[in-house]
Amino acid sequence: MTDKIRKFLEERRPDTPCLVVDLDVVARNYTDLARVLPQADIFYAVKANPAKEVLTTLLPLGAYFDTASIYEIETCLDIGASPDRIAYGNTIKKARDIARAFNHGIRLFAFDSRAELAKLKKNAPGASVFCRIFMDGAGADWPLSRKFGCEPDLAIELLTQAAEDGLHPAGVSFHVGSQQRNLAQWDVAIERAAMVFSELGARGIELELLNMGGGFPAKYRQDIEPVENYGEVIRASIVKHFGNKPPRIIAEPGRSIAGDAGILQTEVVLVAEKSREPDRRWVFLDVGKFGGLPETFEEAIQYRITTPHDGGPVGPVVLAGPTCDEVDVMYDAAGYTLPLALTDGDKIEIQSTGAYTATYASVGFNGFPPLSEYYI
Ligand SMILES: *Cc1c(COP(=O)(O)O)cnc(C)c1O
Question: Is the CB–ligand 1 distance for residue 214 below 6 Å?
């Protein structure tokens, strides 16, 4: 937690649960990544945290924007991003949303199937398109695998088709999986992408764009390597597979920009001892899976937690949310411990929650309002 956030919480004492994001950290995370990836244009993945305060912090730093829907596109246009700074990066789009984006001047679109390419041909004539290739998400805590991407062989065919359709076959994209902690996955992906480049080159089609997606980590419970190491691995891999003729490189970080910039303050509602499980307390918070923490699904993302009693003796806990739904349990198997002194009314902080939280909150399950957000 930054001093700025600590001071805000002390002075404002906002009702919990609430998300507080330090925009200075958003800016620093962006410039740090831009520094270690000097060869890349940074397209912030808007879905990670689409708050206008975040977008307007990034815009003057030179950011581009990767968007998932016409609504995100219009949000970026609203804050003053020009259409040539926005990519429509979702491979799943309604035809009329493609047309609307095209009308707004968007000229860079993702696809990974023949049917989507046909929609682009019809609704975004002449636009630049890139094909997403499949990665299995190995090494990632939040994989984005089965639903997206096609095999490189199909990518070669579809990019050739794109040229025949009057579209501009710009290049290849991939996503190694979100919160990717195995740096070697970028080399696997870049090698695969380079293969598509050279196959198409042999057919007389010169691709020019390599979109590396996101996957850069935030600091959760597990150790992560410094961002410099990511930059170094990627730089070496591009040299290895593209030599001295690299294409335009795009990166689409979401989590690594917004994640560590935010904390979620929550109140302990109940600390219960259950006779079935005498050695473990159940700690119920006023936020849970439905209130902004769905990335605890299968305990995939394991946030760091701080309490007012840190330093005192601890014991094992199950951590659960406040709703009347059995699935609203965040951590059971993950082996969390919390201070024995913890009691109802205590305020605790869930760290690095700036990404994939507030917009993931339900609108009113059990009557609980969506997460309050403060951008400072
Ligand atoms: C979600 C997403 C990202 C952002 O991923 P992070 O792991 O948060 O950096 C980037 N690109 C695409 C296409 C995505 O779907």
Answer: yes
Closest atom of ligand 1 to 90 CA is: 13
User: What domains lie within the chain, and their CATH numbers?
Assistant: 23-259 (3.20.20.10), 261-375 (2.40.37.10)
Q: Which atom of ligand 1 is nearest to the CA of 214?
A: 9
pLDDT digits (tens, 9 = 90+) for 329-372: 999 999 999 999 999 999 999 999 999 999 999 999 999 999 99
SS3 at position 372:
strand
Residues 232-280: pLDDT tens digits? 999 999 999 999 899 999 999 999 999 999 999 999 999 999 888 888 9
CA of 185 from ligand 1 middle (Å) equals 15
State how far Cα 76 lies from the chain centre. Answer: 17
| Alpha-carbon gap, residue 321 to 328, rounded angstroms | 5
List pLDDT tens digits, range 164-223: 999 999 999 999 999 999 999 999 999 999 999 999 999 999 999 999 999 999 999 999
Helix or strand run (H / E) with residue 331: strand 329-331
Pairing of strands 305-306, 18-21: unpaired
Our mutation pick for probing the ligand 1 site, out of 86, 134, 178, 186, counting the most ligand atoms within 8 A of Cβ, is 178
CA of 72 to the centre of ligand 1 (A): 14
Distance CA 353, CA 55 (A): 17
Q: Is the dihedral of CA 74, 75, 80, 84 positive or negative?
A: negative
Share of the chain residues as helix, strand and coil, in percent rounded to the nearest 5: 35, 25, 40
DSSP reduced 3-state for 224:
coil
- The reported pTM is 0.97
Q: Which residue's CA is minimally distant from atom 11 of ligand 1?
A: 213
Ligand 1 centroid distance, CA of 214 (Å): 4
Q: Which residues contact 284 (CB under 8 A, 6 or more apart)?
A: 268, 269, 270, 271, 272, 320, 321, 322
Task: Specify whether 324 is catalytic.
Answer: yes
